Amino acid sequence: MAKDLGFTCSCCGEYHAELPMGCSTTAPDVWHESFADDPDSMLSSDQCIIKGQHYFIKGLIEIPVVGREDPFSWGVWVSLSRDSFARALDMWNTPGREAEKPYFGWLTTELSLYSPSTLNLKTNAHTRPIGQRPFIELEPTDHPLAVDQRTGMTYERVREIAEAVLHPGDNA
Questions:
Q1: For 72-102, how does the pLDDT look when each residue is reduced to its tens digit (9 = 90+)?
Q2: Do 80 and 55 form a contact (C-beta atoms < 8 A)?
Q3: Nearest alpha-carbon partner for 57 in 14, 21, 94, 90
Q4: Are 165 and 7 in contact (CB under 8 A)?
Q5: How many other C-beta atoms are found inside a 10 Å radius of the C-beta of residue 101?
Q6: 109-144 pLDDT, tens per residue?
Q7: Cα-Cα-Cα-Cα dihedral sign, residues 96, 49, 54, 142
Q8: Cβ atoms within 10 A of the Cβ of 17, count?
Q9: Are 103 and 87 in contact (CB under 8 A)?
Q10: Can you give the residue ranges of every domain in the chain?
């Protein structure tokens, strides 16, 4: 595995020792802090329930990077049906859970570096071995995020994403 090289940031002019090969969100876009006091709502690092009616799991959209072994990963949330969420929870700590059929879901993370919106893109959440986040497969549409997942991105695009994430107010 190649070590990630540093880069000189075009936003701040500083040298950053490592190029992040992933970005992540802490909650689905529909989560609001007021839900933390609701007994029918919960947010953990892997699962979320809102008002006992909306169910989410966190997974990774992995995008191949041209010329690199390791992909770039977006840590995102997808909504699942009540039944799929219950099944995912039942299997959460079960060896062999990766043999489960994928769970259909809707992307509930806005990745503002993509246009049009990434909210509500169709997904399939593929369970992986215990300790690994699910792999989130996007429906193979012409949405730029889905195209990136299928065809990959350049190392330069990863740098652009890193700069946008490190300096969110400096980018259009």
A1: 999 999 999 999 999 999 999 999 999 999 9
A2: yes
A3: 90
A4: no
A5: 10
A6: 999 999 999 999 999 999 999 999 999 999 999 999
A7: negative
A8: 8
A9: yes
A10: 23-152
